[in-house]
């Protein structure tokens, strides 16, 4: 009785052990759950080899010969402990996954997971066929999970439409000599692959993955190509890492399908070519893009908000439109930093192949500044309070490109708060003009490129505002405080009187400066007429005088204004060539009288301002009239003395001198009259003296 019970228990245990793996003909079927391959021991034709027994590298090789394996349950193969070998003469679809196949080779230490890619499965079945006779077929009900580990195969592999594929740092490698017909036929719409390493195979992407990131094909026939059954919508792949890894082509063109690689490890250094050379179906579109996220800081490392970033790509002559894309236009990128100084993640097109003739070679439209695989782009940064700057970046590499960019203060700014500048209704001085032009430029993407992205609309040069080749209209009644006409290259500002400021003394342009509706400039300027110096004089005496400005080389008069009462403002056009002996400003008696003030204008000064002039003291007209009266009386007295000495009757004395009495200032005419009378008086006194000598 005891013996019978033991036999029963033994048989029961044996059935339990082998219940999940059963052999029928040449097919082993797995059911239920197996955490390793040990349950396959005892199946006819299965052999095992233990390697490195008693060492840290100990593992078991399970060789099922030329049998086929169908997985209906849940099977785990740990590549660190075991390997499954299948022979060359196995039936097609060597491993058919209807349930779940877990391949793993990972280790977790100190919270970090390390993945290795040791071989978990190796099949030798070899049929050169893209679309049938698979080494591994994950069916519509099947799931393949790879957490590390490797699968090595000699024939094509298929992931069916409704299969679920999860690959994290897994490797699938073709053992046969590469051929376009050896493919991973990827039909699954439930594929998630991260850091998937494919060796020698051609990846044919039919289904649309949930995620496909960090893919690294090596020696592949096609890193990624398409089928006529692929979706007509665009496929997006991130962090492609196949560039420069010996692939026949990285990204294949077929059946007008569309793909985009975001954050290629080698940028545009990838091979995009026809899936089959000379085949008319070898056409389609691939784009390479790069994501960037700069952080903008000031000199002290403090984040800068409201910094504008601008990129315009370069037309290197290889742009092709079609297949639903327009690549012929420049692509531009414009974003603004937040309070953390971060520019939102911006995706930049670095290259594209848009190909529609399978019989000719493709043309790669690289949009970088150097039209090569360095993928260098100019990235411009603009902030109201900072100096405009440019960063040159290589837009390649996996992941988002993060970098810090430092901007420095614009010391030409007068008003640091742009909201105050925005509220200006008129521009009263040159500082306000500079500030408003700086504010205006950063309002939108269009303004940023006026006159160009590298230049300010109004720059500075030796304390002058430099307008380049733009005209300036200063209009006292302009409709807007600041307006630009790019067709005529004209800046129009609203200003009644435009003054200098603490930082700027004048304006320079190669075009014209025009004043409308009573507007005035109280500073010098240089325009297409030449150098126009501003002269501002004020003398302390409240007198009326002439103001004359003279070329000291030939004494020609550049400007003459009369009469001027105490204050003079005006512009003079400097002769060409500039006078060697300078230009002299004179304040004179009226009617070309003598100089009361004169000074040479310094050649380097565009403004000549003298507001505390002490004129040479001059006589007043009243004093001159009194002097005339006294002189006349003296003349009469001496004449009477002479007549008394000569015992003659005193005659009537006639004085015929013309005098003036219409001005407050003394006049030359009065001075000449006084001199004549004094000469006559001297003559009479001399005569009287001679008469006294005779007596």
From TrEMBL:
<protein>
    <recommendedName>
        <fullName>FecR protein domain-containing protein</fullName>
    </recommendedName>
</protein>
<feature type="signal peptide">
    <location>
        <begin position="1"/>
        <end position="19"/>
    </location>
</feature>
<keyword id="KW-0732">Signal</keyword>
């Amino acid at each position: 009785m005891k013996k019978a019970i033991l036999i029963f228990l033994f048989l029961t245990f044996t059935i339990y052990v082998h219940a999940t793996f059963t052999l029928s003909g040449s097919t082993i079927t797995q059911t239920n759950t197996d955490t390793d391959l040990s349950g396959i021991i005892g199946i006819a034709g299965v052999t095992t080899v233990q390697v490195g027994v008693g060492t840290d590298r100990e593992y078991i090789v399970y060789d099922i010969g030329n049998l086929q394996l169908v997985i209906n349950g849940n099977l785990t193969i740990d590549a660190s402990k075991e390997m499954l070998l299948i022979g060359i003469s196995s039936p097609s679809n060597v491993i058919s996954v209807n349930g779940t196949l877990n391949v793993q080779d990972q280790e977790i230490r100190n919270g970090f997971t390390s993945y290795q890619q040791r071989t978990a499965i190796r099949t030798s079945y070899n049929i050169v066929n893209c679309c049938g006779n698979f080494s591994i077929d994950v069916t519509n009900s099947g799931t393949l999970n790879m957490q590390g580990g490797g699968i090595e195969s000699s024939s094509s592999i298929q992931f069916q439409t409704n299969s679920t594929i999860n690959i994290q740092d897994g490797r699938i490698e073709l053992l046969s000599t590469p051929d376009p017909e050896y493919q991973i036929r990827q039909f699954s719409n439930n594929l998630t692959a991260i850091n998937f390493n494919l060796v020698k195979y051609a990846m044919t992407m039919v289904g649309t993955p949930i995620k496909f990131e960090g893919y690294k094909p090596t020696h592949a026939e096609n890193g990624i190509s398409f089928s006529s059954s692929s979706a007509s919508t665009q496929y997006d792949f991130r962090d492609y890492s196949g560039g420069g890894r010996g692939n026949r082509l990285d990204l294949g063109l077929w059946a007008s399908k569309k793909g985009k690689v975001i954050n290629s490890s080698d940028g545009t250094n990838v091979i995009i070519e026809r899936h089959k050379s000379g085949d008319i179906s070898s056409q389609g579109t691939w784009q390479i893009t790069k994501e960037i996220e700069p952080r903008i800081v000031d000199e002290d490392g403090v984040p800068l908000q409201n910094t504008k970033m601008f990129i315009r790509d370069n037309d290197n002559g290889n742009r092709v439109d079609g297949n639903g894309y327009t690549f012929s236009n420049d692509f531009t990128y414009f974003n603004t930093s937040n309070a953390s100084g971060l520019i939102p993640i911006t995706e930049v097109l670095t290259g594209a192949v848009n190909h529609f003739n399978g019989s000719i070679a493709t043309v790669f439209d690289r949009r970088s500044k150097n039209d090569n695989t360095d993928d260098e782009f100019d990235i411009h940064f603009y902030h109201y309070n900072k100096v405009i700057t440019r960063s040159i970046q290589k837009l390649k590499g996996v992941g988002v490109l993060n970098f810090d960019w430092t901007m420095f203060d614009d010391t030409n700014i007068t008003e640091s708060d742009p909201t105050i500048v925005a509220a200006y209704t008129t521009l009263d001085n040159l500082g306000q003009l500079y500030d408003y032009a700086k504010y205006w430029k950063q309002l939108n993407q269009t303004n940023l490129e006026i006159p160009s992205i590298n230049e300010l609309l109004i720059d500075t040069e030796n304390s002058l505002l430099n307008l380049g080749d733009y005209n300036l209209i200063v209009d006292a009644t302009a409709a807007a405080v600041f307006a630009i006409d790019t067709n005529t290259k004209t800046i129009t500002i609203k200003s009644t009187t435009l003054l200098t400021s603490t930082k700027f003394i004048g304006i320079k342009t190669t075009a014209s400066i025009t004043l409308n509706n009573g507007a005035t400039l109280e500073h010098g300027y240089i325009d297409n007429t030449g150098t126009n110096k501003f002269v501002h004089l004020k003398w302390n005496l409240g007198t009326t005088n002439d103001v004359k400005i003279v070329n000291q080389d030939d004494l020609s008069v550049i400007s003459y204004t009369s009469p001027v009462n105490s204050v003079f403002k005006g512009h003079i056009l400097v002769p060409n060539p500039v006078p060697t002996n300078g230009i002299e400003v004179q304040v004179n008696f009226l009617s070309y009288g003598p100089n009361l003030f004169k000074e040479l204008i310094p050649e380097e000064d565009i403004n000549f301002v003298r507001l505390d002039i002490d004129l040479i003291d001059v006589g007043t007209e009243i004093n001159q009239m009194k002097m005339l009266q006294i002189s006349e009386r003296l003349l009469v007295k001496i004449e009477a003395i002479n007549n008394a000495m000569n015992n003659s009757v005193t005659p009537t004395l006639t004085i015929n001198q013309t005098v003036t009495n219409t001005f407050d200032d003394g006049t030359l005419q009065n001075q000449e009259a006084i001199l004549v009378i004094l000469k006559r008086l001297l003559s009479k006194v001399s005569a009287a003296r001679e008469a006294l000598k005779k007596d």
